[in-house]
Amino acid sequence: MSCNPFNRAALLMLAALMAVPSYAKVTFESLLKEMTDLEALTYFPDPAYTTKQFSSYDRNSTDPRVLTDENWFANGDRGKYLREEERNGAKEYVLMDADGPGAIVRFWSANPVDAGIVRIYLDKQDRPVFEMPLTDMLGGGGMPFIKPISIEVSRGWNSYLPIPYAKHCKVTTSKPDFYYQINYRTYKKGTKIPTVSMKFLQSHRNEIEEVGRALASPGEPPYFEYQHSERYNSEMYQSTQVDIPLLVKPGESDDLVNTQGPSGEPIRGPRAVTGLEMTLDGNVTDQTLRKTLIQMIADGQETVLAPLGDFFASAPGLNPYQSVCCGILEDGTMYSYWVIPFQNELVIRLRNLGDAEVRGNAKLTTGSYKWTKNSMYFHAGFRSEYPIKTRPRQDWTFLEATGKGRFVGTMLHVTNPVKDWWGEGDEKIYVDGESFPSHFGTGSEDYFGYAWCCPEKFVHAYHNQPRCDGPGNYGHTCVNRFHIVDNIPFTKSFKFDMEVWHWAETEIAMAETAYWYAMPGGSDTFAELTADNLSIIAPPPPPAPKKVQGALEGEDLKIIDRTGGVSERQDFSDAMSGGAHLWWRNGKVGDTLTLAVPVDQAGTYEVVAVFTKAVDYGIHTLTINGKEAVKDMDLFNNGVIQTPEQNLGAFDLKQGDNTIMVTITGANTKAEKGYMFGLDYLRLAPVK
Description:
Blueprint: H1 5-19, H2 28-34, E1 49-55, E2 83-87, E3 90-99, E4 102-109, E5 117-122, E6 130-133, H3 134-138, E7 150-153, E8 156-159, E9 163-165, E10 168-173, E11 181-187, H4 198-203, H5 205-216, H6 223-232, E12 240-248, E13 253-258, E14 271-280, H7 286-291, E15 292-298, E16 301-307, H8 308-311, E17 321-322, E18 326-328, E19 334-336, E20 340-342, E21 346-352, E22 358-368, E23 377-389, E24 394-402, E25 405-416, E26 427-431, E27 439-440, H9 444-447, E28 463-468, E29 475-482, E30 488-490, E31 493-500, E32 507-518, E33 523-524, E34 551-553, E35 559-562, E36 566-571, E37 580-585, E38 592-599, E39 603-613, E40 619-624, E41 627-634, E42 641-642, E43 646-653, E44 656-666, E45 677-686
Parallel strand pairs: 16-23
Antiparallel strand pairs: 1-11, 2-3, 3-10, 4-8, 4-9, 4-11, 5-6, 5-10, 7-8, 12-22, 13-21, 14-19, 14-20, 14-22, 15-16, 15-21, 17-18, 18-19, 23-32, 24-31, 24-33, 25-29, 25-30, 25-32, 26-27, 26-31, 28-29, 34-45, 35-38, 36-37, 37-45, 38-44, 39-42, 39-43, 39-45, 40-41, 40-44
């Protein structure tokens, strides 16, 4: 039988189309609902999708066998992109280029002001669906990017507004010199996803604002009402609340619930825990919270084993914050809204490995649950280590799991004996046996939603820094992030590594809790917890800042004028005079910073200075009272260091305020183009 080429091609195309299954429809509305729907996390996604990340990570990181700062631990994570394109005579820098069907589910940057205009092209249309300053998109600049769906916290800019597309998505910016991460889903072929438009999103203003209100107060109404009212007020949901007194003596354990209802009758599955609150009496110490374990056994499989405080994503101690899935209230109440399903039976047990009696009260809420072939158990695991040497650099594993499931969050507690920044390290996430991570980050704080090693505490529905002792980044720091709409499914295996990349050579302690869902039979590599591996390490007392005699501290100098960027004090390193420096960031070539240099007595002085050097610092020219002091001083270094004292020359200085002007003139070819400037101190030596 003969067949002409046209008919044959048509038949092949028809066969191919018929071979592609048609999956459930995904819409902007369904994605919006996922932003607060914790029950949806308990089912393996259908239609299935993968979650991956585009970022500005250093492209020199290519080989996990080459454990050097030039390769696997390369730290030049700024200004990297896929390619350049030209549109209407202007350059655009491509950050993301992905086939659909899919959806952007998170967009982060440390410095969106340096990105200029962001454009998002959907389905290969010539005109972008979104075209606006990236600061507006990530900072809650207006509908549909409203606060707190899009918000700046602790210098990190985040948007969680889902942006679905049917065929293709390309993201560009008008400027390249910035840090970014874009998390996105890719669905199975055949999944129906309507592509959004600005007009469509504007028509859904009410729904977007409702989610915004829910995320603004996640640990209390209206979140609880928005998320649960239909279920909790429904007879079909059969909600049950149980008040449970707590008393666990040292060395003993006690079952909060062993599938028993309020009258002692068994709670028959399938059901799910939808709320767990705990309040402890008396003087609750950090060690009590760390050495009291919470254990859950679902249908005969241990699925949760973690210290009590760490399970609620706070350590050490009760540090108030509120997220959509767990938190600590101001009165010390610990709460969890994770949906914890079981098919037949569930045991929730407290084990006291400490020296003090644990007393208090718990409130447990359960409801009916539809167990299906896609249902998964809730898991939480904990690990800690001390000492961790910061040299040589290493990858430290947060979670290694097998089976089928999805990753939904983590909490990290770091004990840092110095003020220097501990978190230059990037996250590296491997899904289903990937040889190279599909998530390669740009810094630990970037993963947790903030930026610039900022010690300011912050609270958000999805990411928090409820504790940072200071000064600088000294002492205990606690950060967490919960992957709700940006969860990461896996079908075989999951591994999450975080680089230990500290500015100083020292020893730190790390403790981490991971949260994930997995189908029956899933496994992990967490070790058994004993009293010996649950200690909280107390950092040594912070050393008193050492000041160079006669120094004019850079951070104390009065700013007379600045033509661009931001200048501020940064508590940076114990190696600095006074433990801090003057930090000028976000400037551009040609910008100037003018400082007042006070002099008690007129005369001729040699001006000596100490500067900061780092990978994103620039080249600068300095003048003193209009006279050139140093031309094109290069402050690039692959790592943060202080320069030796540099003699800038002899100058005639008047009594009162003199001026030193810093001009940005460029950057080293090896540098990240941050053009930053850091001044530790000046010292004036009279010329005799």
